[in-house]
Amino acid sequence: MAKYAITPRGEGKPVGWRLIEDNAPLSDTEPFSVTFDPRGYVLDVGGTSLRAVSNAEVIAEEKEKKRVALREARERALGAGVSYQGNVYDSDREAVTNVFQALQGLQAVASLPPEVQALLPGPVPETITWKLADNSYTDLTVQDLIFLMAILALHKQTQFAIEKSLLDALDAATTSEAIQAINWPS
Whole-model pTM? Predict the structure, then answer.
C-alpha cells in the first residue's frame, strides 16, 4: 500500500506530499502521513488531517489566478505602444516618464528670460529628436509632446477601465466556466 508524507502549506491550502515507504521516517516539516493520494486535498482545521477541496475554494483559487492573469495582461497592454501622427510610440512606464520629463524640460527652458537662455550651452531647441517604438526617429515640438502626453494618459486610463470591467465580471462569476470566459480583449 502506498504511503504519502504530508507537508502542510497552511490551513485550507493544498498540501505538499511525497511517496514514502511504510516505515520511512517523516521530516520535521511532515507532521503526518496518509495512505491515499493527497492530490486535490487541503489541510483541515487543526492541521492534523486532510479534507477535499470545496467548490468555493476551487472558485476562489481560479479567481485569484485570473486576477493575476488580468494584471499581467493590463501591463502588456499598457506597454503595447500608442499612435500619434502615423508613428507608434513606446507606452511603458519608462516611456511615459521620458515624455513627461522632455515636456517639462522644454517648457522650463522656453520660460526662461532671453538673458538667462543666453547662458545655456546652446540655443533653445524648437524640437527634440524622439526615438519611436520601431527604433526610428522623429522630431517633436512642445505641442507634440503635450498631445503625446495626453494620448499616453488616455491609453493608461483605458487599460485600467478595461481591467476594472473584467474584475467586476470576475467578482460576479460563480462557475469555472464563467471565470475562464473572462479574458483581456485582443
Answer: 0.76
State the pLDDT confidence band at 69, using cuts at 50, 70 and 90. Answer: very high
Residue 88 C-beta-side C-alpha neighbours within 13 Å: 7
**What one-character-per-residue DSSP string does 47-98 give?**
SSSEEEPPHHHHHHHHHHHHHHHHHHHHHHHHTS-EEETTEEE--SHHHHHH
185: left (phi over 0), alpha (psi -120 to 50) or beta: beta
Query: Is the CB of residue 154 less than 8 Å from the CB of residue 119?
Result: no
Contact of 147 with 89, CB cutoff 8 Å: no
CA 58 and chain centroid, separation:
22
Q: Where are the domains of the chain?
A: 3-53, 57-180
Closest CA to 128 of 115, 146, 113: 146
Rounded Cα distance, 178 and 101, in Å: 43
